[in-house]
Automatic annotation (TrEMBL), chain A:
Its EC number is 7.1.1.-. NDH-1 is composed of 14 different subunits. Subunits NuoA, H, J, K, L, M, N constitute the membrane sector of the complex. It is a peripheral membrane protein. Residues 67-96, 108-137 form the 4Fe-4S ferredoxin-type domain. This is NADH-quinone oxidoreductase subunit I. The gene is nuoI.
Automatic annotation (TrEMBL), chain B:
It comes from uncultured Sulfurovum sp. This is NADH-ubiquinone oxidoreductase chain G (EC). Coiled coil: none annotated. It comes from the Bacteria. It is found in: Membrane. Residues 3-81 form the 2Fe-2S ferredoxin-type domain. GO terms for molecular function: 2 iron, 2 sulfur cluster binding; 4 iron, 4 sulfur cluster binding; metal ion binding; NADH dehydrogenase (ubiquinone) activity; oxidoreductase activity; quinone binding. Residues 81-120 form the 4Fe-4S His(Cys)3-ligated-type domain.
From TrEMBL, chain C:
The keyword Ligase does not apply. It is an enzyme of class 1 (oxidoreductase). PANTHER family: NADH-QUINONE OXIDOREDUCTASE SUBUNIT F. This is NADH-ubiquinone oxidoreductase chain F (EC). Pfam families: Complex1_51K, NADH_4Fe-4S, SLBB_2.
Automatic annotation (TrEMBL), chain D:
It is a multi-pass membrane protein. One of its GO terms (molecular function) is oxidoreductase activity, acting on NAD(P)H, quinone or similar compound as acceptor. GO terms for biological process: aerobic respiration. NDH-1 is composed of 14 different subunits. Subunits NuoA, H, J, K, L, M, N constitute the membrane sector of the complex. InterPro entries: NADH_UbQ_OxRdtase_su1/FPO, NADH_UbQ_OxRdtase_su1_CS. It catalyses: a quinone + NADH + 5 H(+)(in) = a quinol + NAD(+) + 4 H(+)(out). The gene is nuoH. This is NADH-quinone oxidoreductase subunit H.
Length: 168, 478, 424, 427
């Protein structure tokens, strides 16, 4: 095997002086500054909300939605896996007997408090039924009361998959 | 001591009792042997074949639940061979199991699930559509639901009804992989102990109608307590949970193994008595029906008690702990008040049976008797007519006898919102049975201690702390 | 070739009737019996090395010795007539053609073990045989052969015989399941005891014997064990009823002394294969024994030890002959369907394993098979073997496992060609 | 007192106050937009009053209003309420007073009376600066300590150690400058830098004493808690350091004093090392002599600059939605700037046409010098911002290492060399 000696970086006088590195860094920032101030049309910043983003990818974790089965009924079986996985404790579920014969359990209440949600997507990973997804592409949610940020089961069911996303 | 023999378990030499069931011995050694059908209360049945161990000298792996301990036995509970055998059998166990843990109440305390996760069968070799289908939600009658698909046919439930309750409601029907557990036609589960089969069931086939879908078990916290449903004082686990934004709430009682008191089981009434703890709570102190602070009520009570100590009757109840009773008893001795423990309303002859249930539906009458607190009816009635101040402490005797309060000053300590409140001059809420620590003596003179794990949002003081406050207030006045 | 001991009256018309049978010497052994002590009878049976004919081949005398002596509890003899194995139909012949021989055997055995009640647990489907037995027993009662005394007072020994019809479960042929069933419970085999002991019927000692075994006892009593051990081989003395079924010219039950070559029996008594087809395989003793290929059949000798040597067992002696036309996949499917249906569902491996193999073979037959299915079947057979309470599951593992191993090529071809007649 | 004196004193104080406080919104805006452009973002550009955004400057106004009207919240766990309240005030006053001694122009002579162009005409200029710059750390210490928060305490400790470390080097760097200038009066120092070195190089501090300049500038960064030495704030470790628990205008005061301190440091750096109010090669005398030429040059340069600026506005100051008032801003601004250009040209032309007189010449000179000073001042401030968005924050041990093991010996060495040079060659 033998031992490979890696030369320690930053030991030369030039490195120790700091000045050359600082100057080159300042050159870089200044170059950006000058370029952008000369012509600011190439800035990455969009003038939101007049200009809406067009580059939200399929992996973007937007506001949640509850999916439906083929017969248009709720997929969720109220297993609480999402609530268990949730690091923010923002999911409030109450289960009930399901009587339509599709399954035996479903949520009576399924609330997500968006103010507490950290959008980590663990609930989506945890769901064994693919019942909760974050593919709505909704990145902006506004309300003027705290209670309006609590999404109910109906609201979550009403959310749909973003049309911008590719069909996979 | 010839009963003790030397055996070797996983290469370790140990001593064991000759003739004992090997699996019992392994449990005692904290060796976890997967098993479904074996249960110490129900004995060996040997049908699940999960508890296989290797025993040197025998050609094939043996089930440890049907192997008596013998001198010189060399047992292996680990190793590639035996684990492969367990995996094989577990795979068969799962081959027709719906694996619907998400909707199964047992998930989290399910043995099959544990073994499944440990074994890592994330893919079945049998396709889902080939699985044998059976009925999913069968109402077995009293308090129990059955899911025939999830059943592993360990027959613990049928053996419970056959051997423990002798009610024989359950049986196995059909053959091979179509075998299902069910009640006999036209029969329902009627036993007063039927919910024990929910605990016995190692999988989610039998679930409690009461607890069904209420909570996932891994959210629950638990502490050890006793049941206050009758003077048997069965040992229980109290499963409770303080949900976000909600108050601490009890979700279920589970029996706790206690060979001095109840063995492995409790009755259904006791099990469902947790509802009394959650419902109908008294939270606010009041003086003459007006809500006041605890402090004001305490001052008021101290005033009344110091004013007429000789004209005061304290009525305690067998729902109080030994410590509380002793405290009040000491108070009466020091202050000249009189004390009674008259509480005939807790007797219910129809409740008793020859298993666990007793006719006295209060947990601590034996403790009250040990403190020599008078329960005599005649004495009580005499005192009641003489005394002008009646202090009722957690005693429901006056629930339907409010007319006895005429011309009297009534002080009520209660954890329940009772009708007596309307006739009482001063009302003070106290912590309920499971919210306080204390010891209780059951009808068989076994004293058990509760250390409460419940944390309410707005804690109401325990009787002990409130009473001490009253005592010190009284002293200030004197 | 045949040695007729049990079947000596089979050819006589109406031999099931008491007077006909009596004319031909039934109950002849009893006179000698009453002169013997019970212990002498057991010793004689022990020395004759009479083996259980129900499939296990355990020594009958030894089994009798397990009955506790001087026990205050009543003892029971239970005759296992729950003959439900495909390919086995010898007990039927005994009960059909010579029921009085069975009664005679019961008398001898009960006398030997001081038993006053004997049960004949008969398969539910054998309704007419149960009737025939009942008629015979009634005749025997009437004639005073059994009842308060034996042979009209020749011996002061009370004996009752009761015929009990099962509800048609194969597993009730297993002795402990049979007793459970007889006790009125679900027919689940019991856990095996840890030392050699007798069976327990409602907590009382009992012994369970096969019909043919019991029917062999009078011969030993009457002529002594020396006469019996003259037949057969030193280790497997005596005779056995062999049943031949399948595409042979003369299928049927033949009593043979042990030690004949299997191929000879098929070719002479069986008259050879029908339509000149070639022999492909034989399942030697009811379908629960490992299958023998044609080559093995040529080597096979009909006694317990020789059969064990070639990796099979003699079982009940019911030989199922399979000719070249038969598809082994379908044979296996047919057999597993039977086992799947008959598994009692008590032990996990058997309950789920039989169903699983059935499902796999169903898929194979319906042209959805994969080559990995063959290994899956072998795997399941491995799990079934030796991990259950009774020997039902090992029997499944034996027959299915041996078919899959010995005819693997055929399975592979079947799956790959995706052919085979549609089964629907 | 004469009217002129009142006006001049008033102007001086106004300049000082504006430099200390009034520049804060501008600096905030400056910081945001410069950092934006450096990072390829645009920075604030939405807030507007009737469509006028002034490139985002209005956002700073909005922020100011917000801070002023926000609830003044003191957490319940704070025990030393007085210290808590005093801390931002101390810090603000110290930073604010520092600017007072900066000369904005040469001594102005009106009607034969000489006026010093300083808000606080004190002779001890540099010492005053050192005193108050050092004192202002008390604000941080008190604030952090009174916050009853571990972040605040940690921040206070860091701030103390940091200020002590760098105060030493800074003082020593100044000493070497004093040896050169021979005075502590900032007006004298600025005046000195009007001369030429070897006859052609402006005698600026930075040219005479580059090492001292470097040390001073680095130390000034540390003194003012600016990146890369903003360990007292250290968002990544300390949330916001000493002002974690502050809100509303108390927080605003901290913010203002930070920028005031920065302004003061900039002003001092300009005065000490970049010639103060001096226009290179044109000292006061030269300016006064050639005032007409200078004005004429300005008459050409200013409109030209404004022309290019309007071109830039036209190109870059746009808005996506044409119906929005903000879309019309460019046109308005261009008109205003054109108006300014015309007005300047007209005024300058009139001045040139009718002559200035002595007082007029002096006032014009002072105005040019004030403008020069402000230009330099803003450039140094830009440098501050530039450094902040380029360099990473130092680690704490690196900070101390740099202070004690590098800057301090260098400063001492510099003093020795300077002193030797001065001794050997004579003053």
């Amino acid at each position: 095997m033998g031992i490979k000696t890696v030369k320690r970086h930053g030991d030369t006088l030039r490195d120790k002086l700091y000045i050359p590195a600082i100057v080159s860094g300042m050159k870089t920032t200044m170059r950006h500054f000058v370029t952008n101030i000369k012509d600011n049309s190439n800035l990455i910043t969009k003038s939101y909300p007049e200009v809406q983003p067009t580059d939200i990818t399929d992996r973007y974790r937007g506001v949640h939605r509850l999916t439906k089965r083929e017969d248009d009924s709720i997929s969720c079986v109220a297993c609480y896996m999402c609530a268990t996985a949730c690091p923010a404790d923002c999911m409030f579920i109450e289960a009930t007997e399901r009587t339509d014969g599709v399954d035996e359990k479903m949520p009576a209440v399924f609330n997500i408090d968006l103010l507490e949600c950290v959008f980590c997507g663990y609930c989506v990973e945890a769901c064994p039924c693919d019942a909760i997804r974050m593919d709505t592409g909704i990145f902006s949610f506004v309300a003027d009361q705290r209670k309006d940020f609590i999404l109910s089961k109906e609201a979550l069911l009403a959310n749909t998959r973003s049309k911008d996303f590719s069909d996979d | 001591m010839s009963n003790i023999v030397n055996i070797v378990i996983d290469g370790k030499e140990v001593e064991a009792e000759k003739g004992a069931v090997l699996i019992d011995y392994l449990f005692k050694q904290d060796i976890d042997i997967p098993h479904f059908c074996y249960h110490p209360a129900l004995g060996t049945d040997g049908n699940c074949r999960m508890c296989m161990v290797e025993i040197e000298g025998s050609k094939r792996p043996q089930i440890s639940c049907d192997t008596p301990v013998k001198e010189g036995m060399v047992v292996r509970t680990q190793g590639e061979n035996i684990e492969q055998v367990r995996r094989d059998i577990l795979e068969l166990e799962l081959i027709n199991h719906p694996v619907d843990c998400p909707t199964c109440d047992q998930a989290g305390e399910c043995k099959l699930q544990d073994y499944y996760m440990a074994g890592g069968f994330y893919e079945s070799r049998l396709e889902a559509e080939s699985k044998v289908k059976a009925k999913k939600a069968v109402d077995l009658g009293k308090n129990v639901m059955l899911d025939q698909e999830r059943c592993v046919l360990c027959t613990r439930c049928t053996r419970f009804t056959d051997e423990i309750t002798h009610t024989n409601e359950l049986g196995i029907f059909s053959r091979a992989d179509h075998s299902v557990i069910s009640t006999f036609p036209g029969q329902e589960l009627e036993s007063d102990y039927s919910m024990n089969i929910v605990d016995l069931c190692p999988v989610g086939a039998l679930t409690s109608k009461d607890f069904r879908f209420n909570q996932r078990v891994w959210f629950l916290e638990s502490f050890e307590a006793i049941c206050s449903g009758c003077s048997k004082g069965c040992s229980i686990h109290v499963d409770h949970k303080k949900e976000k934004y909600k108050d601490d709430q009890i979700f279920r009682f589970r029996p706790r193994e206690d060979h001095d008191v109840n063995g492995y089981f409790i009755c259904d009434d006791g099990r469902l008595s947790y509802k009394d703890e959650n419902d109908n709570r008294l939270n606010d102190a009041s003086i003459n029906q007006e809500t006041v602070s605890t402090k004001e009520a305490l001052t008021n009570i101290a005033d009344v008690l110091t004013a007429n100590p000789n004209d005061t009757l304290l009525l305690v109840s067998p729902f109080l702990s030994n410590e509380e009773l002793a405290l009040i008893k000491e108070y009466t001795l020091n202050n000249g008040t009189t004390l009674s423990g008259y509480s005939p309303q807790y007797y219910d002859e129809s409740f008793a049976d020859d298993m666990l249930r007793t006719s006295d539906r209060s947990p601590n009458r034996a403790g009250m008797m040990a403190l020599r607190i008078n329960e005599n009816e005649k004495d009580f009635n005499e005192l009641l007519s003489q005394k002008k101040v009646i202090v009722v402490i957690e005693n429901s005797y006056f629930e339907d006898k409010a007319e006895l309060f005429k011309d009297k000053k009534v002080i009520l300590f209660s954890s329940k919102d009772t009708k007596v409140k309307e006739f009482a001059n001063t009302v003070l809420p106290v912590a309920s049975f499971l919210e306080k620590d204390g010891s209780y003596t059951n009808s068989e003179s076994v004293t058990q201690h509760i250390k409460s794990g419940i944390r309410k949002n707005a804690p109401v003081g325990t009787l002990t702390s409130l009473w001490k406050a009253i005592e010190s207030l009284s002293k200030e006045k004197a | 070739m045949e040695t007729k001991i049990v079947s000596k009256r089979f050819h006589i018309p109406e031999s099931y009737k008491l007077e006909v049978a009596k004319k031909h010497g039934v109950y002849g052994s009893l006179e000698k019996l009453f002169t013997m002590t019970p212990d002498e009878v057991i010793t004689a049976v022990e020395k004759s090395n009479l083996r259980g004919k129900g499939g296990g081949g355990a020594s009958c005398g030894q089994k009798w010795r397990y009955m506790p002596l001087n026990d205050p509890r009543p003892a029971y003899l239970i005759v296992n007539a729950d003959e439900s194995e495909p390919g086995t139909f010898k007990d039927r012949e005994v009960m059909d053609k010579d029921p009085h021989l069975l009664i005679e055997g019961i008398i001898c055995s009960s006398y030997a073990m001081n038993i006053h009640t004997a049960y004949i647990y008969i398969r539910g489907e054998y309704k007419w045989l149960a009737d025939r037995l009942n008629t015979a027993i009634d005749e025997a009662y009437e004639a005073g052969i059994i009842g308060e005394t034996l042979m009209n007072g020749a011996c002061d020994f009370k004996l009752d015989i009761v015929v009990h019809r099962g509800a048609g479960a194969y597993i009730c042929g297993e002795k402990s399941a049979l007793i459970e069933s007889l006790e009125g419970k679900r027919g689940h085999p019991r856990l095996k005891p840890h030392q050699k002991e007798c069976e327990w019927y409602f907590g009382d000692p009992a012994t369970v014997n096969n019909v043919e075994t019991i029917a062999s006892v009078p011969e030993i009593v009457e002529f002594g064990y020396e006469a019996y051990t003259k037949h057969g081989t030193p280790k497997s003395p005596g005779t056995m009823l062999f049943a031949l079924s399948g595409p042979v010219k003369n299928p049927g039950v033949y009593e043979l002394a042990f030690g004949h070559k299997m191929i000879d029996v098929i070719n002479t008594l069986g008259g050879g294969m029908k339509d000149g087809k070639k022999l492909k395989a034989v399942i030697p003793g009811g379908v629960s024994c490992p299958i023998l290929t044609a080559d093995e059949v040529n080597k096979a000798v009909l006694d317990y030890e020789s059969m064990w040597d070639i990796g099979s067992t003699l079982g009940t002696g019911g030989m199922v002959i399979i000719d070249e036309d038969a598809c082994m996949v379908e044979v296996a499917k047919n057999i597993i369907e039977f086992y799947h249906h008959e598994s009692c569902g008590q032990c996990t491996p058997c309950r789920e394993g039989t169903g699983w193999i059935d499902t796999i073979l169903h898929k194979v037959i319906h042209q959805q098979g994969k080559l990995s299915d063959i290994d899956n079947i072998s795997d399941v057979c491995g799990t079934l073997n030796g991990k259950t309470i009774c020997v039902f599951a090992p029997a499944v593992a034996d027959i299915i496992g041996s078919i899959v191993v010995k005819f693997r090529d055929e399975f592979e071809t079947y799956i790959l060609n995706n052919q085979g007649a549609e089964h629907e | 007192m004469e009217f002129a004196a009142v006006v001049i004193i008033f102007i001086n104080i106004l300049l000082a106050v504006n430099l200390a406080v009034g520049t804060t919104p501008i600096m905030v805006w400056w910081e945001r937009r410069v950092s934006g452009f450096m990072q390829g973002r645009s920075g604030p550009n939405r807030a507007h009053i009737g469509g006028i955004r002034l490139g985002g400057l209005v956002q700073s106004v909005a922020d100011m209003i917000k801070l002023a009207f926000k609830e003044d919240f003191i957490p319940a766990f704070i025990k030393h309420k007085m210290f808590f309240i005093m801390a931002p005030v101390i810090m603000f006053i110290c930073s604010f007073l520092t600017v007072g001694v900066i000369p904005f122009a040469d001594r102005l002579v009106i009607d034969g009376v000489t006026y010093t162009m300083q808000a606080l005409p004190i002779d001890l200029g540099i010492l005053w600066f050192l005193a108050f710059a050092g004192l202002s750390v008390y604000g941080i210490v008190l604030g952090g300590y009174a916050s009853t928060s571990k972040f605040g305490i940690l921040s206070s400790i860091r701030a103390i150690a940091q200020v002590i470390s760098y105060e030493a080097s800074m003082g020593l760097a100044i000493i070497s400058m004093l040896i050169v200038y021979g005075s502590v009066n900032l007006s004298d120092i600025a005046e000195y830098q009007g001369g030429l070195l070897f006859g052609f190089i402006p005698a600026w501090g930075i040219i005479m004493q580059p090492l001292a300049a470097l040390i001073f500038i680095v130390a000034a960064f540390a003194e003012t808690n600016r990146a890369p030495f903003d360990l007292a704030e250290g968002e990544s470790e300390l949330v916001a350091g000493y002002h974690t628990e502050y809100s509303a205008m108390r927080f605003g005061l901290f913010q203002v004093s930070e920028f005031a301190a920065m302004s003061a440091a900039s002003a001092l750096i300009v005065t000490m090392f970049f010639g103060g109010y001096q226009v290179p090669w044109l000292n006061t005398q030269a300016l006064q002599e050639n005032i007409n030429i200078v004005l004429f040059a300005m008459m050409i340069i200013l409109p030209a600059t404004i022309y290019f600026f309007t071109q830039w506005i036209k190109k870059n100051n746009t808005w996506v939605d044409e119906n929005d008032p903000r879309a019309k801003e460019s046109k308005i601004l261009i008109k205003i700037f054109k108006g300014i250009a015309i007005a300047v040209v007209v005024i300058l032309a009139l001045l040139l046409l009718f002559g200035l007189g002595t007082n007029g010449t002096n006032i014009a000179t002072a105005m040019i010098q004030v403008s020069t000073f402000l230009l330099k001042f803003f450039l140094i401030n830009f440098f501050f911002v530039w450094i902040r968005w380029t360099l990473l924050r130092f680690r704490y041990d690196q900070l101390q290492l740099l202070g004690w093991k590098v800057l301090l010996p260098l400063a001492l060495l510099n003093i020795v060399i300077t002193a030797t040079y001065v001794l050997v060659l004579g003053a």
